[in-house]
Amino acid sequence: MPPVDRRRIRGPDESHSPYHFVTEESMKCLASGDRRVDVSQRGPLDLRPIFARCGLISQAKGSAYIEAGNSKIICSVYGPRETERKDETDMKSGRLVTDMRFAPFACRKRGAWVQGNEEKDLSQGLLESLRPGVCLHKYPRSQIDVCVMVLESDGPALSHAVTCASLALADAGIEMYDLVLGCTVRHTGTTQLLDPTFAEVQDDQSGASVDSQGTVTLSLMPNMNQVSGLQSDGVMEQESIKAAVQACIEGCFKLYPAIQHTILKTVRKKAPPPES
Amino acid sequence: MDVNEHEVSPATREFGCEQNLLSRPDGSATFIQGNTNVLAGVYGPAEVKVSKEIYDRATLEVLIQPKIGLPGVRERAREQCVRETCEAALLSSLHPRSSLSLILQEVHDDGSLLACCLNAACMALMDAGLPMSCLFCGITCVISTEGQIITDPTLQQEKESRAQMTFAIDSIEKRVMMSSTKGSISVQELQEAIALSQRASERIFQFYRDSVHRRYSKIQ
Amino acid sequence: MILFNSFRTADPLEYHKSFLKENCRPDGRELDEFRTTTLNIGPISTAEGSALVKIGNTAVMCGIKAELTVPPSDTPNKGYIVPNVDMPPLCTSKVRSGPPEEQAQAASQFIADVIESSEIIRKEDLCIQKEKLCWVLYCDIMCLDYDGNLLDTCIVALLAALKNTQLPKVTINKDTDVPEVDLLQKSPININKHPIGSSFAVFDNTIIIVDPTGDEESLATAVMTLVTDEEGRLCALHKPGGTALSGEKLQHCIGRAATRHREIMKLVDKIIESMKK
């Protein structure tokens, strides 16, 4: 039994998600969730339309919000500020701290308030993807905090979190070598789906067993054309991984103009060009 | 132990109080209202953690320990009420960059617990000799299902009530410093309850005076 | 401009008081003026009900998740409502990651008390079968941007999210004794009362301002939150300490809270009406 959380109001000891008891007929309505049915509308290698904005959180040094389909992610950046851990040996370069969380209502099943292992892994993944892009040597003895909150999760969240966090870092005016963009490919058998939704990932997990299936998440610095993070889960053949990585890189380049546009808009708003 | 027994309207239970009963804290007191009993200890002014240091006044920490189990969210909310009331009464700017801690141990709860916590806190702060701009007292009122307002209720009366209010009243102008309510109350009921609490507060302050007087008259 | 900003940093209290003396506030508001309140109902599709509320810069999101459980043994005909307020490190630089701090915990308790006092929902309505099955509504309230007046924002977010909540129909299969959930038939829950909060900040019992910002809250000598329902009854008078307040001032605040209740109800109704179209 997990220790009792005394800092929150507790409900009953046990409760079950209504989705465990869904009747067959209504299961169909649930099953017809967000998927690529019509290739003419959204092909397997098309991203979901993305909405990105900077500077929504007044208290933060920089912030960003990204909406891709139903996925909604908000991120704020605080710092550079005095580092909390003074015992760190390396004081010459700054410390990047990431904290990624899911809101309790972000997934179909209610999540806990306490940060779980999955969230800790994602935080670490986020940190490792972002770190190569940030000029940390410019911030000695200080700490930059990146807080990501997934408000609604529809499909793998890490790639959007990376994009969102790098936008927020840029909004905070933190010096960076390049933006970091994230992209995910879901590979099943012979098909590859870029930027998959929850229903699409769910499908092949419950569907017939396929020899090779997996998810590849990649972070790319588009100007330098360098990969800063790569994460692959599942079983895939070498060729499929290669193809998935290629698809991710292409996906990032598709995403780039939209993100550039957002940054441009933010800069224009903060420092309007002189009227001539 | 001092016990005050005269009966004036509005009705309250018997009060009892003993100060300076613990040797380790810098100030301590126990306060009894009927069967409700709270023990308070004050430490400070002492050195403060750098992270909690406030440059122009003392940092006050309040801890409420329930009779059984560990403190939860409800205790945290009560701690906030007691702390902010004490902060308003204490002249904490006289002790900048230092820490004051107040620990309240629930000994027995038979209704009006928050009020009793406030009373014990005030007596303990007095015993610690900390400078204050005013004294304060806590008083709980409940509205029974018949619409009658009862001051200083027992646990049974609290359970049978439809609304409950706890106020902290200051000793100078008898104004409301803290208020915490439960249940739906009409504006008129609120005003009546405040007026009753203000009258009841006079008795509590008189009791404060008597017990302090009695304590020091023994010393000579 | 630079001089002005350094005055604000060097002596924030004097800075605010110099405005209050002239009966206005640093952000240009009158003393009894609320910041612009905006409402977005139902932004989260994974929740049974949700709302994003902004009062000025302060933004709060409330998501309602419903789960099935056994009713409490002492009240077998009632369901559960479990509210929790969290201020993650995302919302302000003052909070560090970790468990919720005192302010968030006190806010959770306050919201729980308001739900209890106002009877916003009849808990009997959440019971599906006596002693067997009931709903538990987890009302998770998350602050996304903290610039004062958390409690008011939380109450509006909670109310709007509950109004948006749709629960699927549940029947208990007589043969197997297992609940069956029909997602095709969803119905809203009955909102019994509409509590709305109004927060005030007091400067030395002389000046009272409504809807304090984060700066104003930290400089004020006391803060107070009044919650009223549509019948003008008080569901909460929450003043966690601070300097004392006289009866006349309190009366003035109660009057303002009643007007605020009407303003917010109009706003909520307007948004819900526009969603139907």
Automatic annotation (TrEMBL), chain A:
Name of the protein in question: Exosome complex component MTR3
Species of provenance: Coilia grayii
CDD domains: RNase_PH_MTR3
Role: Non-catalytic component of the RNA exosome complex which has 3'->5' exoribonuclease activity and participates in a multitude of cellular RNA processing and degradation events.
GO cellular component: cytoplasm; exosome (RNase complex); nucleolus
Quaternary structure note: Component of the RNA exosome complex.
Subcellular location: Cytoplasm; Nucleus, Nucleolus
InterPro entries per record: ExoRNase_PH_dom1 (IPR001247), ExoRNase_PH_dom2_sf (IPR036345), PNPase/RNase_PH_dom_sf (IPR027408), Ribosomal_Su5_D2-typ_SF (IPR020568), RNase_PH (IPR050080)
Alphabetical keyword list: Cytoplasm, Exosome, Nucleus, RNA-binding, rRNA processing
Any matching Pfam family: RNase_PH
UniProt keyword Metal-binding, yes or no: no
One Gene Ontology MF term: RNA binding
Chief location: cytoplasm
Sequence similarity: Belongs to the RNase PH family.
From TrEMBL, chain B:
Keyword set, alphabetical order: Cytoplasm, DNA-binding, Exosome, Nucleus, Phosphoprotein, rRNA processing
Exoribonuclease phosphorolytic domain segment(s): 13-131, 135-199
Main location: cytoplasm
Bilayer-spanning residue ranges: none
Stored Pfam families: RNase_PH (PF01138), RNase_PH_C (PF03725)
Domain of life: Eukaryota
Subunit description: Homodimer. Component of the RNA exosome core complex (Exo-9), composed of EXOSC1, EXOSC2, EXOSC3, EXOSC4, EXOSC5, EXOSC6, EXOSC7, EXOSC8 and EXOSC9; within the complex interacts with EXOSC3, EXOSC8, and EXOSC9. The catalytically inactive RNA exosome core complex (Exo-9) associates with the catalytic subunit EXOSC10/RRP6. Exo-9 may associate with DIS3 to form the nucleolar exosome complex, or DIS3L to form the cytoplasmic exosome complex.
Protein name: Exosome complex component RRP46
Source species of the chain: Coilia grayii
UniProtKB/TrEMBL annotation, chain C:
Entry's Gene Ontology molecular function annotations: RNA binding
Major localization class: cytoplasm
The family this protein is said to belong to: Belongs to the RNase PH family.
Domain of life: Eukaryota
Protein's recorded name: Ribosomal RNA-processing protein 43
Record's keyword annotation contains RNA-binding: yes
UniProt subcellular location: Cytoplasm; Nucleus, Nucleolus
One of the GO biological process terms: rRNA processing
